[in-house]
Structure formats: structure tokens, C-alpha cells
Amino acid sequence: MRRLGQALGRDPMSIYRHAANRNELLAGVAELMLDELEVFPDDTNWQEQLRRIAHALRRVCLRHPNAVPLLVTGPLSTPLGLRPAGTLRPLEQVMGILIGWIGAREATRALIAASSTWLEPHLVPRLYGLLVDAAVSPGHAVRIIERADSAMTESGACPPCSIGFQVAAAMSYATAGREDAASCRLAKAEQLAGMWPGGPWHAAVWETRGLLRLAEGHDDQANALFHEAAATFAELGRLPDELRCLARAAHRSTPTTSG
């Protein structure tokens, strides 16, 4: 820190206003490197997407050869929810590529691989969220949630990275008719969604509220929430999510007939 202060022509103690210690400072450098990473979400071939990202990462490393060890020697100290949006962008999009193309069987295998890396707290909750979404029945989803809770209690999980799991768990509990458990998960998801003003997670929370209101027998409220979620997804250009919410609302709006 003294050397940095001398290079900047500042009192070394002033650096501690921006970074608590040397490790946090180095983690910030690694985050700035990640902010330079290009991603290619419009490429429809996931293998080619990852190949291009790998080349982009190589270019970043060539620009900053002295800082490369920071990316491979350990986890970043700053929680994901507190990192700049530019740093989260490549991480979120790379995870989106992987999660969007692998199935439940591959996700199960990935859980084993993730447990041996320093990314475990970030990868595991996302993979369990995928498995909950892919469950063949509400009962199956509940069993996966219980297994996930046990696994993440032992290994720890990054709270911001758990939002997808909490949303999936809340939806599954609501569909299974376990309203109390759904409310608990929804509360956790709402708290995490507050880290990012606007964005798809807020829409996902609206959709989850709709499913819970549906389970509680409040169809009109559920429809309003589904439409609110659909409108937010539409603003974000997420057509599949918008259509799913509209389909939920349309299904509940269909009048029933008696024989």
C-alpha cells in the first residue's frame, strides 16, 4: 500500500478509504479486468459463444499480463451483489449461456465439478435453481429444494447468486400448495431483488407473487400480478418470459363451465 501511495503521490493511508486491505484492492483490479471481457449473447451456437469468450478473455489477459494471476489464484473478495454492474454483466451472461443450454443431467454432473472450485458458492445455487425448474413434478421439485438447502448449508452460497434458486423454490412451493414455505422463499427473493433496481428479477418476483396468490385462491390478484410481470419482461425485451406470464394470466382468465 505504501508503494501504491508513492506511485500515486498520495498518503498511503488515504487508500484505505477505498479498499479495506491489500486483498480487497487486488480483487478490485481483477474486477476491472472482468469488466473488459466481451460476451456474445447473439451467437446462437453455445459452443461458439464460449469459444469467442475464451479468446476475448485471452485478449484481456494479454493487455494486463501482470494481473493475470489475480484471476486464477482465488475468489474475489467483493460479494457479487456489491460489485459494479459492468463486472456482473460478463459473469451473468456466461452463466446464462451455460444454464440455457445444459439439461438436468448435465447440471447434476456440473454440481460435482463445481464443488471442487472456488466458484462453488456462485455456481451451486444457480445449478440447483436449474434443477428445480427442470423438476418433473412439484413433489420432485420440493425434494430437490430440500437437498439443495442441505448442500448449501454445508458449503455456503453467495446470497445474490441464490436469487434464481429462491425464485424457483418459491414457485415450486406455491404450485405444490405449500403457501407458508412459498411466502418464506418469496421474502428472500424480494430482499435479493432489491440489490438491482429494475431488471428481470423484479419481474420474476411479480410472477412468483402471482403464483402464490393463485395458490391462496386469489385469482384476480394473481392475474394482475402476471400482467405486471409480463409488462416488465416486455420492457426488457424478454419475449419468452413475457409470453409465459401472459399464458398464466390467460389460463386463469378462462371461465369454467359446469356440466
Q: Report the uncertain regions.
A: 253-259
Q: So what's the oligomer here? A: single chain
- The fraction of residues in strands falls at under 5%
Number of helices: 13
Tell me the radius of gyration: 21 Å
Distance from first to last alpha carbon: 80 Å
Number of strands: 0
Structure characteristics:
single chain, mainly alpha, Serine Threonine Protein Phosphatase 5, Tetratricopeptide repeat
Give your account of this protein's structure.
The protein has helices at residues 2-8, 22-35, 46-63, 68-72, 85-101, 104-114, 120-133, 138-155, 163-175, 179-193, 200-215, 219-235, 239-253. The longest helix is centred in the first third of the chain and has 18 residues, at 46-63. With 259 residues, it is an all-alpha fold. Among the domains are: 1-73, no CATH class; 196-252, Serine Threonine Protein Phosphatase 5, Tetratricopeptide repeat. It is built from 13 helices and no strands. Mean pLDDT is 80; it is low at 253-259. Helix content is 69%, strand content 0%.
Give me the secondary-structure topology:
Layout: H1 2-8, H2 22-35, H3 46-63, H4 68-72, H5 85-101, H6 104-114, H7 120-133, H8 138-155, H9 163-175, H10 179-193, H11 200-215, H12 219-235, H13 239-253
Helix pairs in contact: 2-5, 3-5, 6-7, 7-8, 7-9, 8-9, 9-10, 9-11, 10-11, 11-12, 12-13
Offer a concise description of the structure:
By secondary structure, the protein is an all-alpha fold. 69% of the residues lie in helices and 0% in strands. Among the domains are: 1-73, no CATH class; 196-252, Alpha Horseshoe (Serine Threonine Protein Phosphatase 5, Tetratricopeptide repeat), CATH 1.25.40.
